[in-house]
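Study this pair:
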Amino acid sequence: MLLIGKFACLLGCYLGGIVGGVFLHELGHALAALVATRQRLELEVGSAGGRWSFSLGRLWISARSRGLFYGVTRYDRGSVSRMRQTLVALGGPLASLAACLGFGWLTTQEVVGSWAWIVFLGLTVANFRILIVAVWPMEYRPNGPDGEVWLSDGLDVWRMWRGK
């Protein structure tokens, strides 16, 4: 029974870590955009459903009720240089990398199999997944085949510098 409880804890921490990690990843983009631009921006977690939002100065934060494994940071990209766009694009993966390293280090500080170790392992794996999906060059549609096409950060940077 204890093994089932620990597996459920690992799964819960992984899934919760994805949602929290998506917010952290988008916050990395948003902080980079706040530094690199003078614009108002929107950080959104979730891809569909009802919206809950609030404003913190130039940053508008919103959460949707569905699709919480997806997030986006929006700003007027056309008004900033390609270098500034690249800095903003790299902000998310750097935040995810920091989370991976931080939770990974915490994992190594715990006894293997302990509850804390399981929690940190789930959070490390969740943020590693977000990092890989962000860096891997791909297009995806979080709202199904007819929805808007989103680009991974890796593909976005690649296309910016390849001029496509």
